[in-house]
Amino acid sequence: MTFGFAPSSAASLSTSASAVSASRLLEPAEWAAAGIPLLRSPREVVSGLHARHAPKSATAVVGVLDPEERLLASASFTHRASSADGWMFRNVLLAQLRRVIPHDLRRRTPVRTAVLLYCRDGDARWTEEDGAWMWGLRDACTLHGLRCGAYITLTRDGWQVFGEDRGGRRPNADSAPEPFATSDAPPPPPRTGGAASEVLRRAAAR
Fold first, then answer.
1. 196 has a pLDDT exceeding 70
2. Mind listing the pLDDT tens digit for each residue in 21-79?
3. Cis peptide before 177 (omega within 30 of 0)
4. Cβ contacts of residue 10 below 8 Å, gap of 6+?
5. Cβ contacts of 129 within 8 Å, gap of 6 or more
6. Which residues have CB under 8 Å from 34's CB, separation 6+?
7. What does the alpha-carbon distance between residue 88 and residue 133 come to, in Å, rounded to a whole number?
8. Which partner from 13, 20, 75, 135 sits 20 to 30 angstroms from 189, CA to CA?
9. Which residues pair with 74 in a beta bridge?
10. Pick from 42, 28, 37, 38: which is nearest to 171 by CA?
11. Considering only CA atoms, which of 179, 194, 89 is closest in space to residue 143?
12. Which secondary-structure segment (H or E) carries 70?
């Protein structure tokens, strides 16, 4: 007779959950091959999000850009997870997107693009947490009718756009926000003409 120990159901579930969680992330090569649209002015987008939200460590900033790469809406939140799980990150991002902008699911082709800026410790090298955020961003965009845009990390060394050889030293995780967000749509020019303008012109000339 042979005696042995069968693996506990709890251990089996834990191993299974870890395997599923590991599959919900994107490697850098997968991200680069996904056809993520390139940002025309990445520093302006990064500076705009940084100026608006001043992110610190473990802060994620999701922004929605129009076809001209102007910032339409954004939201920031701190999310410290015990493990890198793309499904969990997807749900958090989707909740933020639903809060700040209507979905575009009725459109055949998405016209707005969501980007994600994540401020974290460490250097700019890819981590499993980055891969989980990439997976979550891509899935959240699909469920909200948006194009999946750039994933950007912000560390003490500066910012880095994954899948592209572009980055910079400022802004960084320790730098102060710039006085205004350069990627926001510019304010409309003041109206001219009309009776009111003529009255103001005459008053200024006196």
1. no
2. 557 999 999 999 989 999 999 999 999 999 999 999 999 999 999 999 999 999 999 98
3. no
4. none
5. 81, 84, 120
6. 26, 138, 148, 163
7. 9
8. 75
9. 63
10. 42
11. 89
12. none
